[in-house]
Amino acid sequence: MNGEYSLDTTEGMAASGDPPTNNAVDDYDAEEALERQREEENKIKIKLKSFEGGVYECGLTAAKMSVMVANMLDALQETDLTKIATREPIPLQNDAVTNKALEKIVEWVDHHWDDPPIDPDFDDEKERRNEELSHWDKQFIDIADQGELFDIIAAANFMDIKGLVEVGAKHICNKIKGKSCTEVREMLKIHNDFTPEEEAAIHKENEWIYAKD
Amino acid sequence: MAHKKTKTERNVTTDEGKVSGQQPQMYAKNSLDRFGDDLCQHLLSYLPLEDRFRHECLSKQWQRLIYETIDGITINRKLMKKMKTKNIFGEKSVPTLRPLTVEKWDQMRVKCLQPSMRCETIVDI
């Protein structure tokens, strides 16, 4: 009896030791499966229509980086995803979504479709915020025409593509770092709505920042 | 200049409930003024602290938003030196560095409270 009991216990312990390993394998498999599913889904091309009427094709997984598009697709309640491809283009009703902007946005999501989703509550949020832009992103966002750049940022904001808005934000902040007020105002075409007195008062308050090192 | 077109606030309602946000809101496409407060605030949240002081005087929109989302501030030695030189922290026990309330500081550590109290940052310098 004793022998059987202890044998049972050992087996029990072994068994209770096993599940985590199995779970880990399961988790890994599940991740793999999800990854494969995302990859497969990205082969399905859907159509997005700009405010100006231009239609652009985009992988499904990539398109879902836009929370707005993802929600619209969810609302269709289409179980057969391949049917989504044959549907009418999804209209993006905001004047910032010009043909040029949408073309660039599709280029960005197609390049970034397998990025991990941005979760603001996640621990590495601060780390990510402080991260430098990748070489690809730097080249992507370095757009000479500022109106076009702002269109892309506004459109990405409208479509709720957090990653792309962040790229735009970092780019603009990089450009204005260390510049003077006048330079920034000139560069970003910001209208100064302070009276000279008001401006001088703020300037005086922050005067210390201009102290020589 | 192009960005001098009519401007209004978005989503503004008067006390009487009349929507005053119906005035056309037109800004030049290449002007940052075209962005609403939410987006503008988000863009500015990536700006280093030092530049926020520098750019507060850009426009009323910037002044309103520039300190709103400080959730990770870095006061490096260089900036700290400037603050000390200008006696920003003063001698009082709870010195104020507008808009941050500096709770306590010594040679190595500054503890700042954001006005909205959404975050508390301890900075090692």
Automatic annotation (TrEMBL), chain A:
Pathway entry: Protein modification; protein ubiquitination
InterPro entries for this protein: SKP1, SKP1-like, SKP1-like_dim_sf, SKP1/BTB/POZ_sf, Skp1_comp_dimer, Skp1_comp_POZ
UniProt xrefs under Pfam families: Skp1 (PF01466), Skp1_POZ (PF03931)
Keyword annotations: Ubl conjugation pathway
GO term, biological process aspect, one: protein ubiquitination
Annotated region described as Disordered, given as residue ranges: 1-26
SUPFAM superfamilies recorded: POZ domain, Skp1 dimerisation domain-like
Keyword Chloroplast on entry: no
Boundaries of every SKP1 component POZ domain copy: 45-112
Domain SKP1 component dimerisation, residue spans: 162-209
Family: Belongs to the SKP1 family.
Protein name: Skp1-related protein
TrEMBL record, chain B:
Residue spans of biased composition, Basic and acidic residues class: 8-18
Domain of life assignment: Eukaryota
Matching InterPro entries: F-box-like_dom_sf, F-box_dom
Domain F-box: from-to ranges: 34-66
A Pfam family: F-box
Region (Disordered): 1-25
Name of the protein described by the UniProt record: F-box domain-containing protein
